Each structure stands twice: as structure tokens, then as C-alpha cells.
Amino acid sequence: MPPSTSPSARSCSLLARRPLRCSAWGISSTQASYCSMDRSLQWSWEQLPRQPFKVDDVASYTSHAVKLTFLVSTKADAAAATFSFDTKALSWKLLGNWALPFAGRGHFVPHLKAFVGLTKDPDTLGQICSCDVPSFDAGDGQCPAPVARVCDEKLFSDKPAERHVSATLVDMRCEGEFCLVECVSVADQALIEEGDVRLPGRCFYRVATFFLTHGMNGDLMTRKSRQVQYYEVPEATSKLFLAEDPVAFWM
């Protein structure tokens, strides 16, 4: 009988580089694990313990590079839960019956000491939310939901002719600088002005860059003026593809 492929039966694997002949190079295994060019390291797969949730219930996720841990929030009907995975101990832990405030991928911002991401709640659509880092390394007990904040500024396009389709938040790895990649649909008879260029209607990727910071009262806010550019989506792109959040990353 073939193995089950149901959501609850799926498991995860971790791709990592493992030290093989560290002693020959005169360095410790810890040093070797961070030396990506060392010939003593090779790529290998590590089978992870089965996750304690259904993968189809995942609502948001993020990682903490310093603590070598990633967090996953699930929502099933009215129930919510957040789990952490320790990549050193290779173990899952239930943090509590609450969910991270953002949808999809979140990003850890060191100078804010918080995770940030986009919210898909209808009341706050187009706004960025953040939450403090939960105490996921405090023994075996569960921890309370972290304090959450929402940026008052709406970052999605506010032009009447543009309809929001999907969006992705990209961390530019520069002290809170982010890039928002938003897909917008424009009526055929409408035009978008980009400097001195007038672009014909259809679908465009609207790319905006900005910085995130905390205000005097700890509120989440953007600083410096936003820069916005539009990029036309190829005609052959399917509507199904555009409906999914854009896949984007910073290099």
C-alpha cells in the first residue's frame, strides 16, 4: 500500500550543511557549520519529526535567525494555535492557543525586536502588523500571546482605478527597510501615471519601498518617503497565478 499523502500525514525535511572532516581543517564543528565555503561541509537531508498539525491549516509562519527557531500558526474553524520548531534540538513545541497577527510569511526585525507581516483582516487590509517575540524558549510550558501592533498607514494602492489583487512583503535586510510587491488590476480604459510615462490598463506589480520603526509611544510606523514603481505583468500570465501572493525575495 502506498504511503498516505493526506495533509495530516505529510512530514517535513530540512536541507542543511553538515561538517564532515572538521579536524583536518583545525576548526571546531560550530565554526565549520557557519563556514559556507569550507570543503568539509556537504549538503544533506535531515528528516524532521512529524509536525503536530495539518499543513493545510497553516495561516502564518516566521523564523528567528538568532534563536535558530521558526514559528508556525494554524487556524482551523475557530481554533488557533502556534508552534515553534527548534532547529538545533529538532523538536516541536506548542506555544499556545493563539495565532501570529499577520497572514503568510512574517519577518524578524532585530532593531524592532519584533516580527512583522501583512494582515489580511478586512478591517486592516493593506496595513502592516507586528508582534513581540514570544517566550518560546521558556521551558516546556506554554506562553501568552505576544503584544501585537498595527501600523495606521495603509500601504496598498489608494487610487480608485486600481483594484488590489495580491501582495507580498519583502525584507530588504537593511535596518527595517522593506519592499511591498502588490499586484493591482486596472480597468482597460484607465491609465497609470509613472513619472512622465502613461501606462495602459491591465495588471501591474506595484513596488513600494519604505522603512519601519517604532514611534514615541511604541506604535508601528513608516519613516522616510515611500518610493513607488510600476511594472507591467506579461499578457500571458494567468489570472490564477496573479491571484496568488507574488513570490519575491531580496538579493
Account of the 3D structure:
- With 251 residues, the chain is mainly beta.
- The protein has 3 domains: 48 residues, no CATH class; 99 residues, no CATH class; 82 residues, no CATH class.
- The chain contains 3 helices and 15 strands.
- The strands form 4 sheets. It has a 5-stranded mixed beta sheet with strand order 6-5-4-3-7, with no helix packed on it. Strands 8-9-10-11 form a 4-stranded antiparallel beta sheet, with no helix packed on it.
- The radius of gyration is 21 Å and the shape is globular.
- The chain starts with 12 loop residues before the first strand and ends in an 8-residue tail after the last helix.
- The N terminus is likely disordered.
- InterPro entries: DUF1668_ORYSA.
- Pfam families: DUF1668.
Question: What would a concise description of this structure say?
Answer:
This protein has 251 residues and is mainly beta. The chain has three helices and 15 strands.
Q: Could you name the key traits of this structure?
A:
5-stranded mixed beta sheet; 3 helices; disordered N terminus; single chain; mainly beta; DUF1668_ORYSA; 6% helix; 4-stranded antiparallel beta sheet; 251 residues
How would you summarize the topology of this molecule?
Layout (H helix, E strand, L loop, with lengths): L12 E7 L2 H4 L3 H5 L7 E7 L10 E7 L4 E8 L2 E8 L4 E6 L7 E2 L1 E3 L4 E5 L9 E5 L15 E3 L11 E10 L5 E18 L2 E18 L5 E13 L6 H5 L8
Parallel strand pairs: 3-7
Antiparallel strand pairs: 1-2, 3-4, 4-5, 5-6, 8-9, 9-10, 10-11, 12-13, 13-14, 14-15
